[in-house]
Amino acid sequence: MSAPTAPTETPAAPAAPVAAPAPASVQSSTPLKSGPIDDDDVNHWKDRFNDVLSRPGEHVNSKSPAGALSWATHLFDCFKPIDLCLITCCVPCVTFGKTHHRVNKNGNMDGYEPINTSCLLFCGSSCCALHWIPASMQRAAIRAKYNLEGNCIEDIAKSFCCACCNLIQLEKETEHREALLRNGSSEQYKSDNGMVYPGAN
């Protein structure tokens, strides 16, 4: 009889390589935007309203200083460009927010988004038929920045009675004035007296 054959051992399978731990994700240092609400804009409008409410008589009777410049655009020249006319007639809050961004944030419109804090403010005030309040405040701020002629009563009347024409004029005027600034013109700063309030002298 033949000798019994020793059982053959099956070699063990090699151990699977251990996967290296995934690198920790690097957190971006750029702050994430929380939507269309901008804290700087909220504070801007809060300060503006507080200023007007703290001295309403002075604001109502205020006017541009002597030597203020004439407007380069006209109130009723509102049908051109046609795209601005259509946008303002359909969604006036967008034009309002666009002008606010150009005047208060960046004249080149860097970082502009159509739906922003000022746009929502105008939209909300329009639901209560109070759109003329932020519009007249914006017109007064534009007069002060670019040294344009006018007074508070005119600002209110044009914002209330000719809402879309007023917004179109402000958008075109600020675009024109910012272009002058980029070209190195100091035309809008011929007078540095600022707004004239009654009893200030």
TrEMBL record:
Q: Which domain of life is it from?
A: Eukaryota
Return the annotated region ranges for Disordered: 1-41
Entry-linked InterPro entries: PLAC_motif_containing
Q: Which residues cross the membrane?
A: none
Biased composition regions of type Low complexity, renumbered to the chain: 1-31
Protein name, entry field? PLAC8-domain-containing protein
Please report the organism this UniProt entry assigns to the protein: Trichoderma longibrachiatum ATCC 18648
